[in-house]
Amino acid sequence: MNDSSQGEPPEPLVEPSGANGAADGDSAGLPETEELSGIEELQSRIAVLSQELTDAKDLARRAQADLANVRRRARNERAEFRSRATEEVCSALLPVLDDLHRAALEVEKTTERWDGDGGQDAAGNVVRGLSEGIRLVLRRFQDTLQRQGLLEIEADGAPFDPRLHEAVQEIPAGPGQREGDVAAVLRRGYLLDGRVIRPATVVVAGASPEPAAVPEGTGESGEDAGDDGNGGSAKDPGAPGSAAEPLSA
Fold first, then answer.
1. Higher pLDDT, 141 or 217
2. pTM summary value
3. Partner of 183 for a Cys bridge, out of 6, 159, 205, 209, CB 3.0 to 4.6 A?
């Protein structure tokens, strides 16, 4: 009996399908829950990184805009500094330019007098050479200043413009002049890069003088109607205002 019991194979142990079965089901669903939580965490992390990237791009754009503004301000400041420096130098040189214009004009007048007198001697040649030399220096000086942006204001014969001209006198308009035009230029004016650094000092043409009225009774010959033809007057010599008795003060 003992031999037969020892020869049979042992029966497998069967666990009841109670609490252990439920535990098996929980253990099978655990990896899926952990996978869902990992995806949610990754999505949250992606959202955070996307926001940080957006903020970084905005910051970079603002930094680029600030840099562009700084560069523009620096460029404008350099241009303003250069303009002011050029204006100071040109303003200091304007009196020299005026003197050169006056010297050229005086030498030209002297040359015309020599030529008018027929002078062909050594002195006349010296004056003509001096005139040519001054004109050459003046042209070169003007060209140098023009390259710096300095331009002379056109004033002679132009309509008066208070933005460009400074009127110091008004005279009756002459032949060929209109009222309000510049009749004469006393001092040249200049523009620097389109800005007035010195207005032109000018004389302005005013209204033309009215012709004097002809007294009534005056004939074509200009003699009074009561003239006797011998230069005498028909007036009473003793009347007030006559040559015989001037008006008292």
1. 141
2. 0.54
3. 205
